[in-house]
Specification:
Length: about 230
């Protein structure tokens, strides 16, 4: 019980400090308070503080050295593929340039994932994609969550690719999609296009990799065009 409590306090402090760093409370290149002062400020134990500092160091947000204190590192050092780091950034009103960069990453990954899914997807994985598509249709009627079902559709294609490296990116893509899809849908004034998603599923189910690749690419090109028009 005590161990779980310590773990929860460490995780909570890691999140609070992480959000404070990405929102600029603690400036890049400047120092954080000492571990002793962090204990007082956040009302946690020294051991929990020390573990939180280690976690943030591993995520690339800070550097802690004996006698030199804790220094906030530049954003180029941050592990953007860490879902915690990405979540903190995206929850702090991310810039359009960041959303553009993320969509460019999607464009480099998702069309290929769809092409691979058209070749490699098992029957169970096809069922998973189809189930997500049905959820999107239900969401149009108010019977499911629009955002969750859209994310489920895109991540199910990643998982059906059969490529372990692409599959490992599912959590990263899912975390960022929660913001980027919300933005593009709000800007367009509509939710995800069901017909285009249904076509993607059909190209995958029919084992047409090039058509699957092109169909996903078209959706992402539209998203990039939308973002670019508002930059």
């Amino acid at each position: 019980m005590i161990s779980n409590q310590k773990h929860n306090l460490t995780y909570q402090l890691t999140h609070e400090l992480g959000k404070a760093i990405v929102t600029g409370k603690y400036k890049i290149g400047e120092g954080l308070p000492t571990e002793a002062n962090l204990c007082i400020e956040y009302d946690v134990s020294r051991s929990a503080t020390r573990e939180a500092v280690k976690m943030l160091s591993a995520k690339g947000l800070i550097e802690s050295r004996p006698k030199k204190g804790i220094k906030v590192l530049p954003a180029t050092n941050w592990n953007m593929f860490d879902t915690d780091v990405l979540g903190w950034i995206l929850s702090s009103n991310p810039s359009l340039s960041l959303l553009k960069s993320f969509t460019e990453v999607r464009a480099a990954i998702e069309p290929q994932a769809a092409a691979l899914a058209a070749v490699n997807a098992t029957n169970d994985e096809l069922d998973m994609i189809e189930a997500a598509l049905k959820r999107m249709k239900e969401a149009e009627k108010g019977l499911d969550d629009t955002l969750d079902s859209d994310i489920a559709f895109h991540t199910s294609i990643l998982k059906a690719s059969g490529n372990p490296f692409i599959i490992q990116l599912s959590d990263f893509i899912s975390t960022a999609l929660r913001v980027s899809i919300r933005y593009t849908n709000k800007t367009k004034g509509e939710d995800g296009d069901i017909n285009k998603h249904a076509y993607i599923f059909q190209t995958i189910k029919s084992k047409k990799p090039e058509k699957a690749r092109k169909a996903v690419q078209e959706i992402l090109d539209e998203a990039l065009e939308l973002i670019n028009s508002n930059l």
